Amino acid sequence: MNDTVLEVEGLKVHFPVRRGAAEWGERMTLKAVEDVSFAVRRGETLGIVGESGCGKSTLGRAVLQLVKPTAGKVVWLGQDLGQLDAAAMRALRGDLQIVFQDPLASLDPRMTVGEIIAEPLKARGARFSAEDRRTRVAAMMDKVGLSPSMINRYPHEFSGGQCQRIGIARAMVVEPKLVVCDEPVSSLDVSIQAQIVNLLKDLQREFGLSLIFISHDLSVVRHIARRILVLYLGRVMEIGGRDDIFARPLHPYTKALIHAVLAPDPSAHQGTAKSLEERGITGELPSPINPPSGCVFRTRCPIATEICERVIPELRELHSGHRAACHHATA
In terms of residue numbers, what domain contains 45? Predict the structure, then answer.
């Protein structure tokens, strides 16, 4: 039985930009996402990791058609989302939701919590009566750990963690099938991060959700994701099961990210956590306007050779379900 709900094939997202003066500058192309393919199964969490500026958020928004892809396909339950008109896409919004990075900035300060959470229900029109909306909002507030008595308060009256719970409630109130979580805990304290991750896992079990969890922090992704996709400069470097990724990473970039994580048991990563520089990953992330030839990671890679400069590495399967885009990766 095929339980795949989302298929992304050869997705590209390019933005036109100008170098220099806004009106007369040279026209250039910023390649935010380049030839990304993956699938998500029903009830699964796919983690997407990489440094800031690697295209993670753009990828997540393109999956939801909040950013128009330049090329490629996003197929949701057999429907190519790129082929749908605006009305058909609106009809699917109940299935596809997003939780944003900044919990306070994503909430309208002029609206009460009840109005914010009810907004997706109102957007779906006459399907939900006013009484039904109130009932659903109160029930969802309770599920995310907020007292329904807070329904008439405003976002500024809540902490950052509580605001993120409001954002999650807003996404969940229409009972979606897929939620993209775009760095949902990066602005929160570590103790609050764990609470939000556990809340998402509880909601996933209750509703049978599929999640795309975007983060730059592998230690967070490890606790929630079943599979992990490593993104660098808009390209997939490695994708595989969580346990495989951590037990035997294939790509030098993945290895550096893992060894840069501060682990509770330092011996699990052969010593104390190290920075990317200490793992041999030096220099800054190249510009997506002018990416390196061949392998985009080669300018920072400690094992790059001449072929890495000439040839874009193919994303090869080296173990069952475990693929890497590296000329030198071996099984």
Answer: 4-95+176-274
